[in-house]
Specification:
Layout lengths: L12 H54 L12 E4 L2 E2 L2 E2 L2 E6 L7 E3 L2 E3 L4 E9 L7 E8 L11 E17 L29 E9 L15 E9 L16 E2 L14 H5 L17 E2 L12
Antiparallel strand pairs: 1-4, 2-3, 4-7, 5-6, 7-8, 8-9, 9-10, 10-11, 12-13
């Protein structure tokens, strides 16, 4: 009697190969889609870096400079800019006092406080991880002390700076017709570099930090140069006539009486030094002593 072959179950080699091919096509499509999404994300990130990295730093510097405070300060202590070179690159330093609120909070017992007037500076140092770049820091001293250009807490801003150059213009006019200075407020014996200049031109060269698809190197790093011209407040520029501004509350001027009698300032008791016969009170300004508002010891 002949034997019967049992039925065999399973996939043939052709079926397995077709299945593997289909799965490979599906994985390839998914991988291409993910790569496209990552690439689009990186492009958006790089565009944001280009428009935000350098401008954000310059915006902070400009905000501090527009709040510069010179009340009660001698001319040589209002602003100091040093021309420095670190590792062959421009690494200028700027220090001043500003009315910008503290960005670094200070512990006072169980409270956290910040000052309304602070010592601020911007300086650079070599990047310990890459000798081709510099690190940029913002110095902030809590309140004001007798050394406004020293000490304080340092806040890290960037470690990809190639150039930080500050040009000083003592007078206003077309930039092409003016010769900029490299330092300001360093030599106390030079009256032409004391007080506040007309405006500054700051050049910041920074490397963008793109997100790289390192396995394909689709993106490459690039340097970007930003230039910002900052006009300093005209009403605070007293270097030309040597005046030092102070905090004061002026007395209101008294008006002349119709009959030539005492001025209105005397009648209100606001101007006790008014003249009885002339009918016009004294217009001398009263002043608050001290001139400088100390909000704490130097950082």
């Amino acid at each position: 009697m002949a034997e019967r072959n049992p039925s065999r179950s399973g996939f043939s080699l052709v079926e397995i190969l077709v299945t593997v091919a289909i799965m490979g096509l599906m994985l390839t499509a998914v991988t291409q889609m993910l790569t496209s999404v990552r690439f689009s994300r990186d492009i958006i990130h790089n565009e944001q870096e280009e428009y935000l990295a350098g401008p954000t730093i310059l915006d902070q510097i400009e905000r501090d400079l527009r709040g510069i405070c010179v009340a009660g300060l001698p001319l040589h202590s209002q602003l100091r800019i040093r021309n420095r070179v670190v590792g062959g690159a421009d690494a200028d330093r700027i220090d001043f006092i500003t009315t910008t609120d503290s960005l670094v909070w200070r512990e006072d017992g169980d409270r956290r406080i910040r000052a309304d007037v602070n010592e601020v500076g911007y300086c650079l140092r070599p990047n310990p991880n890459d000798e081709d770049f510099l690190e940029l820091y913002r110095r902030e001293g809590f309140g004001v002390d007798d050394q406004p250009f020293d000490e304080g807490r340092y806040t890290f801003l960037s470690d990809r700076v190639r150039t930080f150059n500050i040009e000083i213009f003592p007078q206003r006019g077309p930039e092409d017709d003016l010769e900029p200075l490299e330092e300001w407020g360093v030599d106390e014996s030079d009256p032409d570099t004391q007080g506040l200049p007309a405006f500054l031109r700051i050049t910041l060269e920074i490397e963008l930090e793109p997100r790289l698809l390192r396995e394909t190197m689709l993106l490459s790093k690039q340097l970007k140069t930003y230039v910002r011209v900052i006009n300093l407040p005209e009403n605070l520029r007293f270097a030309s006539d040597g005046e030092v501004p102070r905090l004061s509350i002026p007395k209101p001027p008294s008006s002349q009486g119709e009959d030539g009698g005492a001025g209105a300032g005397e009648e209100d008791g606001l101007n006790p030094s008014g003249s009885g016969e002339g009918g016009e009170g004294s217009k001398d300004d009263g002043a608050i002593s001290g001139g400088r508002v100390d909000t704490g010891d130097g950082g």
